[in-house]
From TrEMBL:
Name assigned to this protein: Flagellar assembly protein FliW
Keywords of the record: Bacterial flagellum biogenesis, Cytoplasm, Translation regulation
Keyword Transmembrane helix included in the entry's annotation: no
Matches recorded under InterPro entries: Flagellar_assembly_factor_FliW, Flagellar_assmbl_FliW_dom_sf
Superkingdom as given in the UniProt entry: Bacteria
Signal peptide region: none
Pfam families: FliW
Length: 134
């Protein structure tokens, strides 16, 4: 089970390995988007001007409960899934907002350690968002 509300909202994240497509970058800033509950920006700190939008799935995809492997928790300095926050990458595809449920970003909010997982589960790469969860 993932945490109900992420606590890492704003801060510096250091990835255990560069996120796919962002090598060699590992340091990013996470910031909440004002007026948009559960929406965050992830920007590189090296000046490459890279930005991703992340969503807290508890707001938009409440049924999303990815399986985080023990070795991934250990790499983040966490001992249980309840100690980490999970985000999904959001973008626009064919004019509709979609999220990548196959490759969540998992964060240890105490240390700022982060990783982007590639799950072996049957989650979609582009899940369309219909409406904000109640």
């Amino acid at each position: 089970m993932i945490s109900a509300l992420p606590t890492s909202r704003d801060g510096r994240l250091t990835f255990t390995a560069p996120p796919p497509g962002f090598a060699p970058l590992t340091d990013f800033d996470l910031a909440a988007v004002p007026g948009a509950p559960g929406l965050y920006t992830l920007r590189d700190t090296a000046g490459a001007d890279l930005r991703l939008f992340l969503l807290d799935p508890t707001f938009y995809v409440p049924e999303y409960l990815p399986d985080v492997a023990d070795q991934d928790l250990v790499a983040l300095g966490a001992s249980s899934v309840g100690e980490v926050d999970v985000y999904v990458v959001a973008n626009i595809s064919d004019g509709a907002p979609v999220v990548n449920l196959l490759a969540p970003i998992v964060v240890n909010p105490r240390s700022g350690a982060a990783t982007q997982l590639i799950l072996e589960d049957d989650w979609p790469l582009q899940a369309e968002l219909v409406t904000e969860a109640a």
